[in-house]
Amino acid sequence: MTQETAIETRTIHISSEQQILEGDLTVPEAAIGVVLFAHGSGSSRFSPRNRYVARVLQKSGIATLLMDLLTPEEELLDARTAALRFDIDLLARRLILATWWLVDEPLAAKLPIGYFGASTGAAAALAAAALIPDFVAAVVSRGGRPDFAGELLHHVAAPTLLIVGSEDSTVLELNRKALAVLPGEKDLKIVPGASHLFEEPGALETVAELARYWFTLYLGCASQQTRAA
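Now predict its structure.
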């Protein structure tokens, strides 16, 4: 599938606790699933790293929804205080609201849902997956902080892939501990020579390929089960 077959990206708006959150939805033809992106500390739906991963997924027939889990005003506050980026409960609630939006969206209503989380966004993705297990078919974490999900890690049923750079030593150890407590299908992939932001040559490409494989496998399986039901 080529990028030209994708439906033009549409900006969407979701109401959340008297706030309006924005996102970009792209649905390729004959999509096998949709991945909701939860961005990390101080980032947004315009993150070049996540948008690169999204394009790779789109070319493989996977729809994407890149969401801002904070409003522009909250982003400004967070830039000064760094308070909201660590409010995992808030981020997970908003991720769940975006999931409900996808369930009701005609273009994506019957597609299995996956989460791609980066940094603290990965904790929100894991927490949300634990809270609504029947609606999340797969999770991928890029340089994530699963420790911030706390006890909810013990309740993540979705197949979960943790991706960490070999040079991101503190985060790597936290992910190893998380892997030990995740109860379902799981794996930890270490990208050689990569740091926390995967800025080294080839590192982000490796992340995207690992995510593409994981989502193609588990969203594809869920999609086949839905069609057979």
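The longest strand covers residues 19-26.
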